[in-house]
Design goal:
Helix content is 41%, strand content 26%. The chain contains nine helices and 15 strands. It is elongated and about 75 Å long. The model has no long low-confidence stretch (mean pLDDT 87).
Length: 300
């Protein structure tokens, strides 16, 4: 068995322990439960000891398994420290970055930036995962997430990279056909395009009316879990959308989308780059953060 395979087994064992069960580990590693169980059995056979008591009601390490875990953690930490030392001495990044992003921002901007970053550091493996659903960095094993929510946990750092707002908008053709709503209450007479996230339809649209915060519950004409689809429907004249301004900046400038109800919409939304605070000590994370901040500065 090669040294590489042995190190791979160590990382595999750590992920199982961190997940807390074989079932959850299989989901996180996108594998099947029989495959995970078979690989664990092969590891135990090679070592000649039982590492995990799988007959207990709760996932439990054996005494040998606890010792193996402690030694494995030290070995993996030693490898990471060695890589960090090498990477701090030269622009040679290795390992992997898993990056999550809102769908439209990821396609319009982030994918191209990652291409440029990957060309600078060809030995670094990068995964880009796009979703308009709320994400959990720990659960999805993400190193970075580009999102509009700010995590409440102290372990996370949220770096604002774009300051903006959400805008009510539609195409000129739509307004020519149905007219512009003069106040938020007129939305009940309009076709509204609503986003779905985690089975929740965002049809409670916020406004500022007479100095007070108010929410208008609109009746969705069309709904989708893709912000890109909502964008396309708005361009096609299918209704009024509630869009992040950095996604439609060019459309507003060209006039293919027109803002409405701006006097009632003082609410702001920022785009954040979220990551674990402790990760900043590693060169690959620090380099990526610095790179993104330079791209944002150039864009602005």
């Amino acid at each position: 068995m090669s040294t590489y395979d042995k190190v791979s087994d160590l990382e595999f064992f750590l992920k199982i322990v961190e997940a807390g069960s074989l079932t959850r580990a299989a989901i996180l590693m996108e594998s099947s439960l029989p495959s995970m169980s078979r690989r664990l059995s092969q590891l135990e056979q090679r070592l000649g000891v039982k590492l995990i008591d799988r007959n207990a009601r709760r996932f439990k390490l054996t005494e040998k398994g606890q010792y193996f875990l402690e030694q494995t953690q030290q070995i993996v930490l030693l490898i990471e420290n060695m890589e960090n030392t090498l990477q701090s001495e030269q622009d040679f990044l290795t390992g992997k970055l898993r990056i999550g992003s809102l769908n439209q921002f990821g396609k319009q901007h982030l994918a191209g930036w990652i291409t440029e970053f990957a060309e600078q550091y060809p030995y670094l493996k990068i995964e880009l995962l796009l979703s308009d659903s709320r994400v959990d960095l720990m659960e999805q094993e993400l190193d970075f997430s580009f999102q509009i929510e700010v995590p409440l946990e102290a372990d996370y750092f949220s770096l604002p990279i774009i300051r903006g707002q959400k805008i009510y908008c539609a195409s000129p053709e739509y307004f020519q056909k149905f007219g512009k709503p003069e106040n938020p209450h007129h939305l009940t007479d309009h076709q509204c395009l609503c986003l779905i996230r985690n089975r929740h339809t965002f049809n409670d649209w916020p406004f500022m009316d007479s100095g007070k915060n108010t929410v208008i519950k609109v009746t969705p004409h069309l709904t989708s879990n893709s912000s890109e689809i909502i964008h396309k429907w708005a361009l096609d004249g299918m209704g009024i959308a509630y869009k992040l301004n950095w996604d439609i900046r060019e459309d507003l400038a060209s006039g293919t989308l027109i803002e409405c109800l701006d006097k009632f919409n003082p609410l702001h939304k920022n785009l954040y780059m979220v990551y674990l605070r402790n990760n900043y000590t590693q060169p690959k994370f620090r380099y990526f953060i610095d790179f993104i901040m330079k791209k944002i500065k150039i864009k602005d």
